[in-house]
Amino acid sequence: MQPDSDSNEASYSSSPSSHRQVLSVCVLCAVSLSWFVLWCHLSLSYHNSHPQDSSDDMKKVQRREKNRIAAQKSRQRQTQKADTLHVESENLERVNAVLRRDIRRLREEIKCLTYTLSSHQSTCTLATHKMPAVPPRVVSPRFQQ
């Protein structure tokens, strides 16, 4: 399959405008490259003429690296602590739910035993002599529901 002659000519043409585009790209690359070389040269000459600044820069880089590592460790500890607290919170929620179920069950048991006792007292034949009265139990309103 052969491409159209028009599209073939457009893509492979050696027109002056395409040469200008290539030249302008090459000129831009050359300018960028020359600026980069100049920057590297100035940077190297500056660092060679200022050895104290170079060691200060090295110390600054090392300090930043240490600080970055310390911050990372701190964030890890903080995340680990939050995870631990979350797990502990979930465990306490489960324990609390179990205790609330136990409280409901025990209250129902109290109702059943109280009803059984009251129905038994009315028909009990052993109640010939008086039993000492049991003082009423005071329950905090916080635990009454």
UniProtKB/TrEMBL annotation:
It is found in: Cytoplasm. PROSITE patterns: BZIP, BZIP_BASIC. The chain crosses the membrane at residues 22-42. GO terms for molecular function: DNA-binding transcription factor activity, RNA polymerase II-specific; RNA polymerase II cis-regulatory region sequence-specific DNA binding. Its main location: cytoplasm. Residues 89-116 form a coiled coil. Pfam families: bZIP_1. InterPro entries: AP-1, bZIP, bZIP_sf. GO terms for biological process: cell differentiation. CDD domains: bZIP_BATF. One of its GO terms (cellular component) is cytoplasm. Keywords: Activator, Coiled coil, Cytoplasm, Differentiation, DNA-binding, Membrane, Nucleus, Repressor, Transcription, Transcription regulation, Transmembrane, Transmembrane helix. Residues 48-84 are annotated as: Disordered. Residues 57-120 form the BZIP domain. AP-1 family transcription factor that controls the differentiation of lineage-specific cells in the immune system: specifically mediates the differentiation of T-helper 17 cells (Th17), follicular T-helper cells (TfH), CD8(+) dendritic cells and class-switch recombination (CSR) in B-cells. Belongs to the bZIP family. This is Basic leucine zipper transcriptional factor ATF-like.
